[in-house]
Amino acid sequence: MHCAKTWLALVFSVCFFFSFSVEGSQTNRENPHGFKFGISRKDAFDLIEFSNLKVVSNHKYSNDLRKIVLSGSLSGVTLDPIPSHETRLEFYKDKLMSSSVLFSFEEPSRFLSAKSKLIGSLADVLGDRFDREKMFSYEVLSWDLLDTVVLATLNFKKKTIEIEYVHKPILEQKTAKDLRRKRREDPGDPAKQMFLDSNFSAQKKR
User: Measured between alpha carbons, how far is 105 from 159 in angstroms, rounded to an integer?
Assistant: First the structure.
């Protein structure tokens, strides 16, 4: 047990050191926001407990899908003053499928400044070739990488910025199961299925 805690502390320290800035925490493809894709909820909670982050919600949407919301972030940010922000983790079959950080601002000028800094950092690391969609007060930038989809969702009305990483191999497992269920014509829970079917695209439009 002592060895396990020591190992966890070492891992956390390394992650914290290498991703302490806004830029670092938003552009690490394998370990976005300090949580490695594919880890279990137990391993994630070990990191959460070690970092003293507060769990805002821990909601189970189905037997396979669970979403955890944390106040603050594991890797921290260097914006001054630090904006209100939360981390959102989504697990499929107890494996981390997506990780995002949602930043909220009160002043339009700070929102626009953070937008330029975050998007600039993403473009520098992920490339300046990305898809852009606009709808009302929303703007979504997306990078489709080998194993990861990166989404930057901007809400100009609410002055929020969400940077999300989605692990494609795990997402494809979920999509394949959803397709098999539909082919069996299993009605399931209509309200719950509405969420599951639109979960990925809904995050892009939020």
Answer: 6
Q: Residue 197 CB: number of other CB atoms within 10 A?
A: 13
Measure the CA–CA gap between 102 and 142, rounded to whole angstroms.
16
Find residue 59's DSSP bridge partners: 67
Bridge-based pairing state of the strands 160-167 and 65-71: unpaired
- What are the φ/ψ torsions at residue 40 (nearest 5 degrees)? -80, 165
In this predicted structure, what is the pLDDT of residue 79? 60
How far is the C-alpha of 143 from the C-alpha of 145, rounded, in Å? 6
84-92 and 160-167 as β-strands: parallel, antiparallel, unpaired?
A: unpaired
Element (H or E) spanning 69, and its range?
A: strand 65-71
4 Rama class: left (phi>0) / alpha (psi -120 to 50) / beta:
alpha
pLDDT digits (tens, 9 = 90+) for 66-88: 999 999 888 766 666 788 999 99
Q: Are 97 and 171 in contact (CB under 8 A)?
A: yes
Classify strands 65-71 and 84-92 as parallel, antiparallel or unpaired: antiparallel
Residues 37-58: tens digit of each pLDDT: 999 999 999 999 888 889 999 9
Q: What angle do CA 89, 159, 70 make, to 5 degrees?
A: 25
